[in-house]
Every structure is written in structure tokens, then in C-alpha cells.
Design a protein that fits this description.
The protein is mostly helical. It has 20 helices and 7 strands. The two termini are about 60 Å apart.
């Protein structure tokens, strides 16, 4: 809380008592002063008196008196008078300044007394205000702390209740989950019982069919199936072996292909390298030939020419021989490649032949296996026909037992249907009752909220959400506490407003105006605005055409409170304006059309607006709000009138809206009763449903018993019929199997024929490939001979060329050297060309080999795929044989063990029925747990709602408003007591502040006079101090002059010593004459000098310690 402490003026330079003079100084000064007065008059005492008696100077100072005599021989009498006159004038100025200062001091003392008194009063009220402000702060802090404590406890209680509710809900969820699990367990138990029943029926059927004949037939069928299974296993093993061989051949072919592909790549690289060498050798050879041509051009003579001709002829013959050799080698390479190709083709054909021979063998094995199956199928058909005839007779006897059991079961079914219908109705009643309970529970929960206990809930009830939103929206300026029974939004105050609405319409009707409708939106505006006017005597910013009134009760007719007084003002103003007697229904238009005339009478809308609002002729709707919080007055009434919004707001008559309001309040009041009734109805329906469920169980038990009879009869009949049908099916199946088996035999035989045909074709291909290989090898041998002959001829030609070159060298060394180089280059070119030809041959051979290996690989892959398919068929046949054997073996075992299996099935069925019963009991227990958990949730919900309501009530408390008003409708006695203390403390602070303001005002009023007196006193004092300083300065000046004169005399006296014995007086005078004129010397006091015939008292100069230090 800020404290009020304004600045105030203090007296500056307050006088302090000066120290009095004591001891010899005082005596000496007195003597000196007395002597001086006797000589010169009183004016010379003034400086001493002024300094000694100045009570206002803040610096203690001894009296100062200057020498008043000067040497007569050095200064004329006029000069002495002048100095003395200066001192006298300055003393006179001091006296005047002191008199003025005394007057100013008197004025200051006069002004300071009341100022100081008021200042003390102000300080006292400041202390009182500070204490009351502190008390107010403490009271507010205590109220806020108590609210925080209560809110914290309420939050904890709400959290605890919420946690308890959450736990109860968790237990309910767990109970429901457990019930679902138990229900699933019951379903599973029922399914298990059904499965057990099916197995029992199958066992019963098997027991009926387990005749020696049936067992024999089944065992034979199993034996036949075992034989077929063994054959299938053998076929599968053969197919797997063939597949493994084919896969191994494929792997070998893949390796051969990979090697051929690598060889091809290497041959291609070698060919590329040989091509490069040929190009380089050709370039070198061309260069050597050019050099040779140049050398030959310089050679001359017939012998040289003849030798050169021989060289050229030999070279030509060698070139021709080499060409023939190259052609022969190319032919040989081609022949060798053809041999390799033919060899690969033969190898592939032989592999294909072998594969086709293996296919023939596999097909022959398939024929054998198919024939074995056909023989077994024929045997099964014969046995099946015999069994079918036996079963036909057994089925007829079982049918009579079934008919009787069905009649008994039909009667039990009808009773069960009736029981189930009753149970369904009871279950539906429980569902309906649960829905009704849930609806009532939700309504009850909603009815306890602050919104439901206010007009917001009512507006939502009638679908006027805009009205509810208006209250929320206007709460930013209109302090609204939802749920407060004294708030403008409370249901109690809203109920009171309907009577007040009727007062408005009664008046309007009485003066010939139409009655106004009511809208929820206008009601909401008025109710919200009433909250504003509760604390502020005025209209909210949201007000339109609005009237507000403050009163002590609701009994008065507020319409007349607004109308009567203002109507008289209006009527008087209208009469004075010459408008005559204006009817209320015309008042509105009259006022606005004659505003000037009314204004001339001093009557404006602010004067008669309440009356005019009520008699608006074009008004359509209105709303009314009442606040009973009592901040300013016990009740606030707000009327909102509108003539625009009716276009989209729903309009009600007062009775219509009040009837809806009464229905809403009735619904709120009945919510708890409805919930209790719904709960009782739910429990009753649950009990009825349980009873009906028991009846269904009893009927189901009877039906089950009758069903067992039917089951037994049907089981026997079904067993007989099944046996008959099975026998017939077995006959049909045996026929089908025989037909299939015969078909498989035919298919297998066809496959053998086709495979044998393929082998013959493959053998023809192999023979053809062998003949082609033989012819190719013969051609290669011929090509080899041609190559050998060509190489021999080339050697002969080379020797001839060498001989010619030697002869040529005899005639030209240059040509010989060039020829040698050309020959070497030619040799290199020939070798490179030969290598290129060889690389080309190797490349072509590698290509042919790669292509052959690729074809062999493809053939091997196809063969492997064929073998895989055969192996797949064999695996499928093996699976079929296994399944057939397992089925027939199981039937044979079932027939052989029928008695034991029946006993086992009966025990399993009994155990399954017991499990169904146990699961039903467990489900019933789980349902009971759900009911208990629901009750716990309901109790926890009620506790949580209560805690939430308490918390909501606390949260709805406007602490600041409570502190300001002294209470809150939702606060308890403890908090309201603290709120009341806050108001009292606030009032005390207010009163103290008012007293402080008054004291400050008094002080402020006295301050100008005090300030003026203080300023005047300080100014007079300053002038006095200045005058004294002037006197001091003048004395100092005269002292300096006197000191100079005295010093001159002393010097003169020392220069002319006195002769003779001086008289006592003269001796004393001489001794003293040697003393300085300044300083503290008591011998100076009262001493006289004879100067120029004038006797003067030497004025003593008494300096303070300060003066001494300065000098």
C-alpha cells in the first residue's frame, strides 16, 4: 500500500545559541568599549554589539574591533574622520539589516508556529493511515490465504474423489472385461460340448458300423492303400534319382559353358591385340619401304639393275607363296573349327539320346505303378459292393426310432421357444431400463452444475444458445457469478422477473400500447447488465434501450417507479411548450419531433428516458433482469427494450416463456426422484430377467434331454444311413478310382510309346552327326597337307630372295642396308599377320565352342526341368497315397477300436457338459460383480460430483469482489467473516486516507505563507551577513594601514633611542609601542596615545583562532 508522504518545507539555517564571552576577554572588551564610547560616541560600539549578540549566526565568532586612532603626524584630521565615518556608516547598515532581520524573524516565527503544528498533525495522520493500510493489506492477505487453503483442500478432495471414481470405474471395466472373458469361455465351452457331441455321434456311428464284415473290408482297403503307398515311394525314389542325375549333368554343362565363355573372351582380347600389332608392323614396313625406294633412286648401273630385277622377282615369288600358305592355313583353321563344331553337335545329340532313353525307362515304371493301382481299385470295388448291400437293411430299422424321438422333442422345443420369448422380453426390458437409468443419471449430473442452476441451463434447455453465449460474452465487463442465487443469472431472480415483465405490459396496455413479447436474448442482456449495475450506479456498455432501478424490495411496481415521476415532467414540459396533453402512446414521437421545445424547458432524454423507453410505440420485444446481491442497493432491476432483433430472435409471450421456465425447474427438481425410480425399475427388471433366464435354462435342459433321445436315435439312423451312404459312396468312389487307374495305365503306355519314338529319332540324329564329323575330319586332313606343302614352298622362295639380296648388296651398300631393314619390317609384318590369322581362327573356334556349349546347357536345363516335373508328379502321387492310406488306416482302426472310442467320446461329452455348467456359473458370478461395481461407480460418482460441486462453488467465488463487498454467496462463514474484516479494514483505511488528505490540505494551505516568511527571513539574514562582512572588510583595510604607520614609528623609534631615564609613564608607553597592532594583548586594553595633540584610546584588536590562522 503506497503511503501518502508529501514533501514539506523546513526552516533553513535555524539559529543556534552563540557562545557567550567569559573571562578576561569579556572584561577587556567591556573596558575598551566603555572607553571608546566616552571618546567617540555609541556608534563605534555597534560592531562589537552586533557580533557579540547575533543569535542567528551559525558560526561562533569573537568580537572584532579595529584601532580607531592613527598617527597624527601622518594623517590629517579629515582622514581620521573619513575612516571613522566609513565604519559608522557600515555599522549603521548593519543596524538596519539587523532590524530588518529581526522583523523577518518575527514574521517567520509567526508563520512557523501554525505550519509546524499542521505538519505534526499531518505526520500523525500519515502514521494512522500507514497502520490502517497495513491492516487492510493483512486482512486481504488473510482472506486470500484462507480462500487458497479452502481451494487447495477442495481440489485435493475432488482429486481424491476423482481417483476413487477412476478406481471404481477401472474395477467396473475389469468386471466387464472379466464377464466378457467368462462369456467367451462359456461360448468356448458350448462349442467344445458341441464338438464333443459330434465326436460322440461319430463314435456311436462307428460303433454301430463296426461289424466283422466292415472291419475286414476296411482292413483290406488299408492293406491295398499300403501297397499303393509303397509303389508311390519307389516311384518317387526313382524320379528323385533321375532328377539328381539331370541336375548334375546341368551343373557340368554349366561349368563347360562358363569355361567356353571365358575362352571366348580371352580369344577376343588376343584378336584385338593382334590387330593392333598388325597396324604397327604395317606402319613400320611402309616406312622401311619408303626408305628403300629412296635408296634405290640413288643407285645406278646395269649390274645393279639386273640384281635388283632378281630381288624383285624373288620377292614377288615369295609373296605369292606366302599368300598360298595363308590360304591353306585359313582353310585348315576353318576345317578344324568345323571338326570341333561337329564334335560338339555329336556330343549334344548323344546326351539328348541318353535323356530320352531315361524318359522311356521312367515311363515304363509309370505303367507298372499305374497297373498296380488299377488292380487295387478293382479289388476295392468288389468289397464296396458287398458292404453296401448289408448297410441298406440296417438303415430301415433305425428310422422308426427316430420318428418317435422327434415327436417328443417338438413338444419340448415349443416350451423352450415360449421361455426364450419371455427371456428376450425381460432382457429388452433391462436394456430399456438401463437406458432410462443412464438418461436420468446424466440429467441428474447435469442438474447439479452451476450452469444448470442458472438461466444458462434454461436457455440451453429451450435451444437458445445465443442467449447463453451473451451471458458468457458480456461477463468481461459485467461481473457475473454463475450459480450464485443472488446473481442476475440465478433461477430465483429469473422467476421474479416474469411478474415485473407483466407490470410493463400492464402499463402499456393501460395506455393503449401493444403488449411486448419476450426473447431469451433480451432477457440474457438484461440479466447480465443487472450484474454490472449492482456494483455501479449506471448502465453497462452492452446496454441498448435500457432502464435500471435500485430498490429495497421486489414488492414495488418498478414500472411506475420509472414512469410516474418522469411522465409528470414530460407532461409539464409539453404543456409549457404549448403541445397540450400528450397521450403516453404518442409521447415517444412527440418528444423526438419537438426536441427543441422540450430542450427549452430543460428536459432532455436523460431526464425522461425511462418513461419514453417504456412507451415506445414501435417496440417489439423486451427482457428483464434482477440482481439481489445488494452491493449498492438490495435489488437492481434492469429492463431491456428492443425493436430490431425480433426479426431473428424467437419471440415468446410472457406466459409461454414462463411455462417453459417452470417446466425446466420441474425437470431439475424431479431429476433425483426420476433417477431413484429408474434405478429401482432397473433392479426389478434385472431380477425378472434372471428369473426368465432360469426358466430358459430349465427348458433348455428338457430340450437337451429330448435332443439326446433324438441324437441317440438319429445317431443310430445316421450311422446306418451314413454306413449305407458310405458304402454307396465307396462303391462309386471305387468305380471312379478304377476308371482313373485304368486311365493312368493308358496314359502311361502312351507316354512309353512317345518316349520310344523320341529315342528312335534321337538315334537317327546321332548317326547323322557321326557321319558329318567323319567327313569334317577327312577335310581337315586334306587342309593340313595343303598347309604343309605351302610352308615348304615358302621356305624355297625365301632362300631365293636371300640369294638375290646378297647379289644386290654387292652393287649398293645403301640399298642393301635399306633392303635389310625393309626385309626385317616385312618379316615383322608377316609374323604379325600370321598371329592375327591365328587369333582370328582361335576366336572363330571359341565362338563355335561357346555356341555349342550353350546349346548343350539349354538341353541339360530342359532335361532337368522335365525330371523335376516327373519328380513333382511322383511327390504328388506319394502325398495322395499317404493321405489315402492314412484315411483308410484310420477307418480300419476306428472300426477295430469302436468300443473304446465310444467310451472315450462319452466321457469327453460329459466333461464338456460339466464345463458348460461351470462356465455358466462363472458368468453369473461375473455379472453379479458388474452389478456391485456399477453400484460402487454410482456411489463414487455421487461423491465425485459432490466434491466437484464444492470445488465449483469455491471456484465461482470472486475473491476480489468478496474482499470489496464483504461477502460472497458461495463462501462459507469463515471466508465471509474474513471478507467482512476486509471491508472494515478498507473503510478504516479510507477514513484514514480522508483524514490524511485533510491534514495535507491544511498543511498545503499554510505552506505558501510559511515559505514566504522563511524566504524573507533568509533574505534579511543574508543582507545582515553581507553588511557585517563589509564592516569586517573595512576594519581589515584600516588595520593594514594602521599597522604600516605603527611599524614606521617603531622603526623610527629604534633608530633614535631615548636618552636619559624615562619616566614610568614614558617607559611603559615606549615598551608598549613596540608591540604589533594585531594579536591578543591584554596590555592594549585601556591604553592611550598622545598623537598630534589628540588623546585616543587604542582600540584592542581581538581575533578569533580562525583569524589568527588566516593571518
Amino acid at each position: 500500500m503506497a503511503k501518502y508522504a508529501p514533501k514539506h518545507l523546513e526552516v533553513s539555517g535555524v539559529a543556534e545559541p552563540r557562545p557567550t564571552f567569559s573571562g578576561h576577554k569579556a572584561t577587556r572588551l567591556a573596558v575598551t568599549a566603555a572607553t571608546t564610547i566616552a571618546m567617540t560616541g555609541s556608534s563605534l560600539l555597534a560592531p562589537f554589539s552586533a557580533f557579540a549578540t547575533d543569535a542567528s549566526d551559525t558560526t561562533a565568532q569573537d568580537a572584532i574591533m579595529s584601532p580607531l586612532a592613527v598617527h597624527a603626524g601622518e594623517a590629517a584630521g579629515s582622514a581620521v574622520k573619513t575612516n571613522a565615518q566609513k565604519i559608522a556608516d557600515l555599522q549603521a547598515a548593519i543596524d538596519a539589516a539587523k532590524a530588518a532581520e529581526a522583523d523577518a524573524k518575527s514574521d517567520y516565527d509567526t508563520a512557523a508556529a501554525p505550519y509546524t503544528e499542521k505538519q505534526a498533525a499531518r505526520d500523525n495522520t500519515q502514521s494512522t493511515y500507514d497502520a490502517s493500510a497495513s491492516d487492510n493489506s493483512q486482512a486481504e492477505a488473510a482472506a486470500r490465504a484462507e480462500y487458497a487453503r479452502q481451494l487447495d483442500e477442495s481440489v485435493k478432495a475432488a482429486d481424491s474423489a476423482s481417483a476413487t471414481l477412476k478406481d471404481a470405474q477401472g474395477k467396473l471395466d475389469a468386471a466387464k472385461t472379466d464377464a466378457e472373458d467368462k462369456s467367451k469361455a462359456l461360448d468356448a465351452a458350448k462349442q467344445a460340448a458341441a464338438d464333443a457331441q459330434a465326436k460322440l455321434e461319430a463314435a456311436q456311428k462307428a460303433a454301430v458300423n463296426a461289424t466283422p464284415e466292415e472291419i475286414k473290408v476296411a482292413e483290406q482297403a488299408a492293406a491295398d492303400a499300403q501297397a499303393a503307398l509303397d509303389q508311390a515311394k519307389a516311384a518317387k525314389a526313382t524320379a528323385d534319382s533321375a532328377l539328381a542325375d539331370a541336375q548334375q549333368a546341368q551343373s557340368a554343362a554349366q561349368s563347360a559353358y562358363d569355361e567356353a565363355a571365358g575362352t571366348l573372351a580371352s580369344a577376343q582380347q588376343e584378336k584385338t591385340a593382334a590387330d593392333g600389332k598388325v597396324v604397327a608392323a604395317q606402319t613400320a614396313y611402309d616406312s622401311a619401304q619408303a626408305d628403300l625406294a629412296a635408296a634405290k633412286a640413288g643407285a645406278e648401273g646395269p649390274e645393279y639393275d639386273a640384281a635388283q630385277a632378281k630381288v624383285d622377282a624373288a620377292q614377288s615369288a615369295l609373296d605369292q607363296a606366302k599368300q598360298q600358305q595363308a590360304a591353306a592355313e585359313a582353310g585348315l583353321s576353318k576345317a578344324n573349327s568345323d571338326v570341333a563344331s561337329k564334335q560338339d553337335a555329336l556330343t549334344g545329340a548323344e546326351s539328348e539320346l541318353e535323356a530320352k532313353k531315361q524318359t522311356v525307362a521312367a515311363a515304363e515304371n509309370d505303367v507298372t505303378a499305374a497297373q498296380t493301382k488299377a488292380d487295387a481299385a478293382q479289388s476295392e470295388l468288389t468289397s464296396a459292393k458287398q458292404a453296401h448291400a448289408t448297410e441298406l437293411e440296417k438303415a430301415k430299422a433305425a428310422q422308426k426310432q427316430v420318428d418317435q424321438a422327434k415327436a417328443e422333442k417338438e413338444q419340448a422345443d415349443k416350451a423352450l421357444e415360449t421361455a426364450k420369448a419371455n427371456q428376450a422380453a425381460a432382457d429388452q426390458a433391462v436394456v430399456d431400463a438401463q437406458k432410462a437409468y443412464d438418461t436420468c443419471k446424466a440429467a441428474t449430473d447435469k442438474a447439479t452444475t452451476a450452469e444448470a442452476q442458472s438461466v444458462i441451463g434454461f436457455y440451453q434447455f429451450i435451444g437458445a444458445n445465443d442467449a447463453a453465449n451473451i451471458i458468457y460474452r458480456q461477463s468481461d465487463k459485467n461481473p457475473t457469478t454463475i450459480g450464485d442465487k443472488k446473481d442476475g443469472t440465478s433461477l430465483d431472480n429469473a422467476k421474479l422477473s416474469f411478474g415485473k415483465l407483466r407490470e410493463i405490459n400492464e402499463y402499456r396496455k393501460s395506455v393503449g400500447l401493444s403488449e411486448l413479447k419476450v426473447t431469451a436474448e433480451q432477457m440474457a442482456i438484461a440479466q447480465s447488465d443487472s450484474n454490472y449495475s449492482d456494483a455501479t450506479k449506471g448502465h453497462s456498455d452492452y446496454a441498448g434501450f435500457e432502464n435500471a432501478a435500485w430498490n429495497f424490495s421486489t414488492k414495488e411496481n418498478i414500472a411506475h417507479q420509472w414512469v410516474d415521476g418522469e411522465k409528470k415532467i414530460f407532461d409539464d414540459a409539453a404543456a409549457k411548450a404549448g403541445l397540450g396533453n400528450v397521450a403516453p402512446k404518442d409521447a415517444w414521437k412527440t418528444f423526438w419531433s419537438h426536441g427543441t421545445e422540450f430542450g427549452a424547458q430543460g428536459v432532455g432524454f436523460g431526464t425522461i428516458g425511462h418513461y419514453l423507453n417504456i412507451v415506445q410505440p414501435d417496440a417489439k420485444t423486451m427482457g428483464y433482469g434482477i440482481n439481489s446481491r445488494g452491493t449498492l442497493w438490495p435489488y437492481v432491476f434492469v429492463l431491456e427494450i428492443d425493436n430490431n432483433y425480433g426479426s431473428y430472435e424467437k419471440e415468446y409471450s410472457i406466459d409461454e416463456l414462463e411455462n417453459l421456465f417452470d417446466q425446466y425447474q420441474l425437470n431439475l427438481s424431479k431429476a433425483s426422484d426420476n433417477l431413484a425410480a429408474a434405478k429401482a425399475n432397473l433392479e426389478q427388471n434385472r431380477s425378472t430377467a434372471a428369473s426368465k433366464a432360469d426358466a430358459v435354462k430349465a427348458a433348455e435342459t428338457l430340450v437337451a434331454q429330448k435332443q439326446k433321445g433324438i441324437v441317440a436315435a438319429n445317431s443310430d439312423l445316421a450311422a446306418k444311413n451314413d454306413s449305407t451312404a458310405s458304402a454307396a459312396a465307396a462303391v462309386a468312389l471305387a468305380r471312379q478310382n478304377l476308371a482313373k487307374a485304368n486311365g493312368k495305365v493308358a496314359e502311361a503306355e502312351d507316354q512309353v510309346k512317345a518316349a520310344q519314338s523320341n529315342v528312335a529319332t534321337a538315334e537317327q540324329v546321332v548317326n547323322q552327326k557321326r557321319a558329318e564329323l567323319k567327313a569334317s575330319k577327312e577335310q581337315a586332313a586334306q587342309s593340313q597337307k595343303k598347309v604343309d606343302d605351302a610352308k615348304a614352298e615358302t621356305l624355297v622362295k625365301q632362300q631365293a630372295l636371300q640369294d638375290a639380296k646378297k647379289e644386290l648388296a654387292k652393287y649398293s651398300a645403301d640399298v642393301a642396308a635399306a633392303q635389310e631393314k625393309a626385309d626385317e619390317a616385312h618379316q615383322v609384318l608377316d609374323e604379325a599377320t600370321a598371329a592375327q590369322t591365328s587369333a582370328q581362327s582361335a576366336l572363330e573356334k571359341a565362338k563355335l565352342d561357346e555356341a555349342a556349349k550353350k546349346q548343350a546347357l539349354d538341353t541339360a536345363k530342359d532335361n532337368a526341368e522335365a525330371k523335376a516335373a516327373t519328380a513333382g508328379h511322383a511327390a504328388s502321387d506319394l502325398t495322395t497315397a499317404k493321405n489315402d492310406f492314412a484315411s483308410k488306416k484310420a477307418r480300419a482302426d476306428a472300426l477295430s477300436n469302436a468300443a473304446d472310442n465310444l467310451a472315450t467320446a462319452e466321457a469327453a461329452k460329459k466333461e464338456a457338459d460339466a464345463a458348460v455348467t461351470d462356465a455358466g456359473v462363472a458368468l453369473s458370478t461375473a455379472n453379479d460383480a458388474i452389478a456391485n461395481a456399477e453400484q460402487a461407480v454410482e456411489n463414487s460418482q455421487a461423491a465425485s460430483d459432490a466434491a466437484a460441486a464444492t470445488l465449483g462453488k469455491l471456484k465461482s467465488i470472486n475473491v476480489e469482489n468478496g474482499i470489496a463487498t464483504g461477502s460472497d454467496a458461495n463462501a462459507n462463514d469463515t471466508l465471509n467473516a474474513l471478507f467482512a474484516k476486509c471491508v472494515a479494514a478498507k473503510q478504516a483505511e479510507h477514513n484514514a486516507k480522508a483524514a490524511l488528505d485533510a491534514a495535507q490540505a491544511d498543511l498545503d494551505a499554510a505552506t505558501p505563507a510559511y515559505t514566504a516568511a522563511l524566504n524573507g527571513y533568509n533574505e534579511a539574514k543574508a543582507k545582515r551577513v553581507a553588511a557585517e562582512q563589509a564592516l569586517k572588510d573595512e576594519i581589515a583595510r584600516q588595520e593594514q594601514e594602521a599597522a604600516k604607520v605603527e611599524q614606521a614609528k617603531i622603526t623610527q623609534a629604534a633608530a633614535k633611542p631615548v636618552t636619559g631615564k624615562p619616566s614610568a609613564g614614558n617607559a611603559k608607553t615606549a615598551a608598549n609601542s613596540t608591540l604589533p597592532t594585531t594579536g591578543d594583548n591584554a596590555a592594549l586594553a585601556g591604553e592611550t596615545f598622545v598623537i598630534g595633540g589628540v588623546v585616543l584610546v587604542a582600540a584592542g584588536v581581538f581575533l578569533t583562532d580562525k583569524k589568527r590562522r588566516q593571518e
